[in-house]
Amino acid sequence: MTYSLQGKRVMIVGGGSDIATALASDLLHEGAHVMLAGRDATKVAAAAQVTGDTIETLAVDLADEESLRAAAATVAAGGELNHLISVAAQRANGPVATLERRAVLAAFDAKVVGPLLLAKHFTPLIAVGGSLLFFSGLAAWRPSPGGVAMAATNGGVTTMVSALAVELAPIRVNAISPGVIATSAWDAVGPGKQAFFDKVAATNPARRVGAPSDISAAARALLTNPFITGETLHVDGGGRWA
Question: Is 202 domain-assigned?
Answer without folding.
Answer: yes
